[in-house]
Design a protein that fits this description.
Elements (H helix, E strand, L loop, with lengths): L2 H25 L2 H7 L4 H13 L5 H10 L2 H21 L3 H28 L6 H29 L2 H18 L13 H8 L2 H14 L2 H15 L4 H10 L1 H17 L3 H20 L5 H29 L5 H30 L4 H19 L4
């Protein structure tokens, strides 16, 4: 292993592993935690939306700052905010107080995600972009999988309050490790340069498709755990496997896709199209699931589609934009995803209580399918 690859890919990816693990030990089961506190469907939707909605006014500025300031400091501050978030979850249970801490947590999560990915993007080896971004996605998905399965086992015998100290310990380690990141070369691009980058047709098409696709995260975060436990009757270990267990396979698939994209870039647009189809189909099928085995099968289909979309978006960003401005340019897609995610959580949290959470999979599946049709209609642009 080369020193450069370790410092610019493996080490920052390990920080992503820690942050994703700590955050998803809570996120996978957040809806259940809030239900157990006595929150209504609307309150759950508001809290989860606020966590994302903070990024509506921070993503683009953070993206610009990641091109102008030292990224290691931004990473450290983001983790510090997440530590404060988990301290709040440990000691407060009222809706107003949780609202404040969800706000702080949202700012921290967005700052960390924007800055650490900008760090990796800027250090990419041009000939191994797919491989290195596949590692990033592998680490993120693998940590998410561990959080789902491990969290499910923990919640069979412990309370949510017992999980929060684990997340705090992991985040403390990530915070200390962040000081060992390399310093980055600073640039101060002009705003009109970003405007020129994002005005291309392919960027606009991808932004629209990514918006439609990102709406479905609300069903994964809110509907899935509620349906699995309270409608289908799965125990917490089964819920953990359904949410996180299937991601172990998806993590390995991300490495394969990254290598394929390096060798056959033209292959990537079809990976995006079929990824959207699989993601959509998985949600349509989940709207009919009645057993643990059905849920596992449909989650595999859906998750393999999600991984295809995620790896494509990372590699396409690396190809489309200059490294000098990639922090700000990439933040556009994060911004789009956050708008869709926040809107989705408000809609799913409210509508799910009216029509049933399992039926919300039909809404998100339809939007993702529309994104696939747009890619099919515009594939010559890629």
């Amino acid at each position: 292993m080369s020193s450069k690859l370790f410092k610019h890919s493996y080490f920052p990816s390990s920080l992503i592993f820690g942050e994703v693990l700590a955050l998803n030990l809570f996120n996978w089961f957040a809806a259940l935690f809030l239900i157990d506190l006595g929150m209504t469907g609307m309150e759950i939707g508001v809290l989860l939306s606020v966590f994302l909605a903070t990024a509506l006014f921070t993503t683009l500025p953070f993206g610009y700052l990641s091109d102008c300031f030292q990224l290691k400091r931004m990473v450290s501050f983001g983790i510090a905010c997440l530590i404060l978030f988990f301290v709040g979850l440990t000691y407060f249970t009222s809706f107003p107080m949780l609202l404040a801490f969800f706000f702080v947590g949202g700012v921290g999560a967005n700052l960390f995600k924007t800055s650490i990915r900008a760090f990796i993007f800027k250090a990419l080896d041009h000939h191994k972009e797919g491989f290195e971004l596949g590692i990033l996605e592998f680490v993120s998905v693998f940590a998410t999988a561990i959080a789902g399965v491990f969290g499910g086992y923990l919640l069979m015998g412990f309370s949510f309050g017992d999980i929060f100290p684990i997340s705090l310990l992991v985040l403390a380690i990530v915070f200390l490790a962040s000081f060992f990141l390399d310093k980055n070369v600073l640039h101060k691009p002009r705003v009109r340069e970003y405007r020129g980058d994002v005005s291309h047709k392919i960027v606009i098409v991808l932004a629209v498709v990514f918006f439609l696709y990102s709406f479905h995260g609300a069903a994964d975060d809110i509907s899935a755990p509620i349906v699995f436990r309270d409608v289908i009757g799965m125990n917490m270990i089964e819920v953990g496997y359904a949410l996180g267990g299937v991601l172990f396979l998806a993590a390995l698939f991300s490495l394969y896709l990254g290598k394929r994209f390096d060798k056959f870039h033209h292959f990537s647009k079809w990976a995006l199209f079929f990824g959207l189809l699989l993601s959509s189909g998985g949600h349509f099928l989940l709207s009919t699931a009645t057993s643990f085995l059905e849920v596992m099968a449909y989650r595999v289909i859906h998750t393999l589609g999600d991984i295809s979309v995620s790896v494509f978006m990372l590699t396409e960003v690396a190809h489309l934009f200059s490294k000098k401005r990639i922090g700000g340019d990439y933040s556009l897609f994060l911004f789009v995803a956050i708008i869709a995610g926040a809107a989705g959580r408000l809609v799913i949290g409210t509508v799910g209580e009216i029509i049933g959470y399992q039926q919300t999979f039909l809404i998100t599946g339809s939007l993702t399918l529309l994104g696939a049709l747009i890619i099919l209609a515009t594939h010559e642009e890629f």
